[in-house]
Specification:
- There is one protein chain.
- By secondary structure, the chain is mostly helical.
- The chain is built from 23 helices and no strands.
- The protein has one domain.
Amino acid sequence: MITLGWVTLLLLTILFAGLPVAFSLGATSVLLVGLFDLPVKLIASTMFTSLDSFVVIAIPLFILMSRLLLDGRVGDDLFEVMNVWVRHLPGGLGIATILACAFFAAISGSGAATAATIGMVAYPAMIDRGYQKTFVLGLLACGGTLGILIPPSIPLIVFGAVTEESIGKLFIAGVVPGLVLTAILIVYAVYRSRRGGYVPMQAASWQERLRVTRRNLWGIALPFLILGGIYTGAFTPTEAAAVGLSYSLFITLFVYRTLRLRDLPDICLKAVGTSCMIALIISGALLFGRVLTLLEIPQTLTALIIEWKLSAFLFVLAMNVLMLFLGCILETVSIILLTVPLVAPILEALKIDPIWYAIVLTVNMEMALVTPPVGMNLYVINGLSEDIHMSEVIRGVAPFIVILGAFLLLTMLFPPMSTWLPSMMK
């Protein structure tokens, strides 16, 4: 345990020195290799094999797909569809916003992309109808977090790549919790709307509803194509990413015509930047995990947990407290890659279902997306308009952090919510 203390101190020192997470992990690993006389060749071999994976290929494909859909304004169409069906209900615009976030989450895999895409169209619409600004900002920031819970989910791909769990089962495990959280957010949106006295919009005619829905069927079909293919076993998650990318390219270029061929190089460059950042973090984190394994730190922690006779629930509860702290200072992929290599052997020793733990961890990462000072969605929402101040965003997300905390506890107390659907997969 003395070794673990020194390793933690070394990593934190490098992190707080201002070095990016990926390079902090890599630098710490290299120093540990030198200090403990470990084989130098493991640095190159581990960093190469960490990305030489069919599963990891899904990450840049989903990132590029979400970028196409973002720049192709598909989120605008999804919001329009939801709005014509529910705008006459109390809090109709709030309901439409959450439903649009859920639908876009089912095709993007990114919380930030979901918040940005739906926020661009929902924010001005809700403000124009007189909704309280902080409520709108909090709703959009929290609604965006559905992007990492409802499959496909980039954090779940990362978890599966580290633990070698089935990505398909991890994806499907997020469906029911994602729908439950969507319902909870809708109920809260209706409650706040009634309390605020917001007047519902005039109901759309059936002709308008059918016309708008028919016009946007191509975008609506995308999540069913991806999830249906994975659930039925028609294709793997990586193949689903390739199919979704091809489909997105087709509808944005030739059906909706919101993109042109000359737009693609810029879109690809933006996607490559995000993909490279995640790839570097994966390489650095898996090298760090490999070094820790050679130093027998995970084995020592596992033996210590068993010696303490800590129950599975108490261990997961303790991990969630740690995740809440880490969520305030690190982004989601870094947290997963830092902790999972250490936690994986303990999950096996305590007979904790890794699928359930992955969903619990993802819900905790949803909170990380809206927790200051580094919550990614806070900055995304802050950038929607020049008249938005970060203090307003933080005030707006405060009640939603409480809601996410309650939902996290619900996910912990009812594991079948996460494990039932994967058990039904072929």
